[in-house]
Specification:
The chain has 179 residues and is mostly helical. 82% of the residues lie in helices and 0% in strands. It is built from 9 helices and no strands. The chain is globular, with a radius of gyration of 18 Å.
């Protein structure tokens, strides 16, 4: 099967799982939130960003009510919301959600944890992408270059993931980034 067909099948199964969980457990249950979250991931993989955002928001609302708005589970959803906004070119929204994920991860995991460090670097990357608002080209180039040169593989992976999006955002503003 093609990857797209497999994702569609997975989406059907995840939708069925959500229906079962809603019937058996109700709307306000951690497993129901997990089903919404999984649907969001699948929609994002299919590049159906508005559907993904909707499902992530359902998951966030349920997790916030059950586990608290600053829980590690909420950080996970904020991170996924940020990735989805970033993939859709909404760097301003991505910045907000990466910042929330960073704050909650640091609270629960500490600043030195790899997940916290990854979120921190993605917040920096979003700052770079928002260059037209507050940052200049030199700061953007140096922040992205620091990510590429980092000894931490998590940070390098974040830089590799963000690099094309940042370069695109900068080039749309008439800037050129050579790294």
């Amino acid at each position: 099967l093609t990857r797209r067909l497999q994702l569609r099948r997975a989406l059907d199964y995840a939708g069925q799982a959500l229906v079962i969980r809603l019937e058996k457990l109700g709307v306000c249950h951690v497993c129901t939130a997990d089903s919404h979250y999984n649907l969001g991931l699948l929609f994002r993989m299919l590049r159906r960003y508005s559907d993904a955002l909707r499902e992530f928001q359902f998951a966030r609302n349920i997790r916030n009510e059950l586990l608290g708005p600053e829980s590690l589970a909420s950080a996970e959803v904020h991170f996924s919301l940020a990735c989805t906004h970033q993939m859709g070119g909404r760097f301003d929204e991505a910045f907000v959600h990466y910042s929330n994920a960073l704050r909650f991860r640091q609270k629960h995991l500490g600043s030195a944890h790899p997940h916290s460090r990854c979120a921190e670097h993605l917040v920096d990357a979003m700052r770079c992408a928002l260059i037209g608002h507050a940052y200049n080209l030199r700061e953007s180039e140096s922040a992205l270059a620091r990510m590429y040169r980092s000894p931490d593989p998590t940070v390098r992976a974040a830089g590799n993931a963000m690099g094309p999006g940042i370069r695109k955002a900068l080039s749309q503003r008439g800037w050129f980034v050579l790294l």
